[in-house]
Amino acid sequence: MNSLMNTFLYHLAVVEGVTQLDLQPGKLGDRFVAIPRGPQAIFVGVAASDDAIVPSDTGAVWFPTPPRTTAPMAKPVILHFHPGGYVMGDVRTDATFAAQVLTERVGSHICMCLYRLASNPGGRFPAALQDALSAYHHLLQEIPASNIILSGDSAGGHIVIGLLRYIADHGVETGLTPPKGALLFSPAIDMLAPLEPGTITKTRNYNNDYLDPTFLSWGAKRFVSQNTESRPYMNPLGHPFKSPCSIWVFCGGCELFCDDVTDFVEQMKTVKGNEVELRVERLANHDIVFAGNLTGWRSQAEEAAYEAGRWISKLS
């Protein structure tokens, strides 16, 4: 299966396939939510650093159903950002397994957020961050921050790291209250390294994972901003910050990103007050919470989600 996944990603990168952002409900009905761009006041600093990339409307899909905000919820709502190297992914069709395990093991309702992809014009940084800010602001109008968990896998995890940094830097200024906690599943950490594909092939786990260097390089070249202010958002390594909430991190021991993830966790732990927990599935490859049903890691993905849910239950 690794070779099939690798081949698929390689060919997608070669043809530079485009995933259109579809903001129509279609057959999803009330499970689809249109998210208007947030108020201008929440877009400051790095979120307003590129005059060509401006806040836009986005959308999300609820799994299994939208929450009844008037009724008490036993578990928190999860705001989740999908994977895809910033160039692919559509929660309408791709997120079924991840949504299932997260709903059953972690949260009562999962809001799977769409965001602008860098494979489209106008999709480079900070487009995805702007969409994440709009989505979080939208949820805050109905659900208290104390009942929201931010979550993301792969590139989606990279979005969450950036969102946490942004809230740490600008939360008071923008009125964005910190969430209850954050989950990072196989997060992409360094978006600068893949600009040179040769750095990927030298990675310790290169031969153990299905991620393709051509695909990763395509995503990085489309996504990365040249604005120096954005560098800590491109690669948080060497730029630890005081997180506004506790963080739980999962990765596979055979992942391409494993060493980066471990370094990120250790660096974040050096910041006084940060609470960061890491769980490694020793032999797993990339993002089993998203693709474990395809790559033979279903039970381990379910166990990881269960542990994430147990961690959340202990948060004050």
TrEMBL record:
Gene3D superfamilies: alpha/beta hydrolase (3.40.50.1820). The active site is at S154. PROSITE patterns: LIPASE_GDXG_SER. The lineage of its organism: Eukaryota, Fungi, Dikarya, Ascomycota, Pezizomycotina. Belongs to the 'GDXG' lipolytic enzyme family. Pfam families: Abhydrolase_3 (PF07859). GO terms for molecular function: hydrolase activity. Residues 78-288 form the Alpha/beta hydrolase fold-3 domain. Keywords: Hydrolase. InterPro entries: AB_hydrolase_3, AB_hydrolase_fold, GDXG_lipolytic_enzyme, Lipase_GDXG_put_SER_AS. This is Alpha/beta hydrolase fold-3 domain-containing protein. SUPFAM superfamilies: alpha/beta-Hydrolases. It comes from the Eukaryota.
